[in-house]
Amino acid sequence: MRDPADMTALARAIRAWGAELGFQQVGIAGIELGEDEAHLRDWLAKGQHGAMDYMARHGDKRSRPAELVPGTLRVLSARMDYGTGDDTAAWATLERGEDAYVARYALGRDYHKVMRNRLQKLADRIAGEIGPFGYRAFVDSAPVLERALARDAGLGWIGKHSCLINKSAGSWFFLGEIYTDLPLPVDVPASAHCGTCTRCLQVCPTQAIVAPYRVDARRCISYLTIELKEAIPEELRPLMGNRIFGCDDCQLACPWNKFAVRHDEPDFVARNGLERASLAELFAWEEEEFLRRTEGSAIRRTGHEGWLRNIAVALGNAPTTPAVLAALASRRDHPSALVREHVAWALARHEREK
Description:
Layout: H1 4-20, E1 25-29, H2 34-45, H3 54-57, H4 65-68, E2 74-81, H5 87-95, E3 101-102, H6 111-130, E4 135-138, H7 146-152, E5 157-158, E6 164-165, E7 173-180, H8 199-203, E8 209-211, E9 214-215, H9 221-227, E10 243-245, H10 249-253, H11 279-283, H12 287-293, H13 303-317, H14 322-329, H15 337-353
Parallel strand pairs: 3-10
Antiparallel strand pairs: 1-2, 2-7, 4-7, 5-6, 8-9
Helix pairs in contact: 1-6, 13-15
């Protein structure tokens, strides 16, 4: 048995070490997630996970940390901010139909790598203090209910748009976890403060937030542009605007983000001019250039084919200009049937607008 006083002191030290490593907050949660498990089961039963079969494949391991990692008693939940204070600029990009909108989290280096590296350093620091201990670190890399755990660790509450919201920092942040066998004292779970606000539900371009705290992934632009590998449903394409990788509208509309602090983490600075690139410019990337420019980026997840599919839809929604039409025509005979179909849809949409 580890001495409770020692564990309390260690918990304080862990928070301090986390801050030294660049985390804005580290909290400690227990592993009881019964209500969240029921919510997850209902969401899966309604098919609202779409083609994300892995969500169902892991069963209850997602909501039972000790089944995923035997021996787990506590979860260290860490928050790293990536807000840039450019919400006005983000809205402006969304209004410029010929420019591409990439979700703010994906503009720089892949956060998974940044977070995992720092979580490992935190685990090493703990081991250096107390000796070997049981742990595993995760950054969206295993069946983990990260937002529920972060809530229980006091990092924020789950908003009506399903993102985590921190009262003093908004929602522009990443989460990572360390599952551990250390009997650390747990933090007080965060209380909810959405109140009667429904701005996120109202602003969602595809009405994917079908009810408070309920997102139907099959309608979500983040799902459509990243997770879905097939054709994007035609009825949703016009609603996607110029969003080619992910979507931030619900966070941009959230009043709590007026408290988000600008964070200039070098790894999260925009690469390849993605915060101001035109759709035609990005559509011209051949696969070799796509792979080179997206090295170390979350955008790699779409693959080149998915990248072109997404941009073709955005070009179909763009103003009818010579540059837009020329870009689409350049991919009319692309080897991929998926790309060709979306290009044909976009060209037909412009033809109808004439």
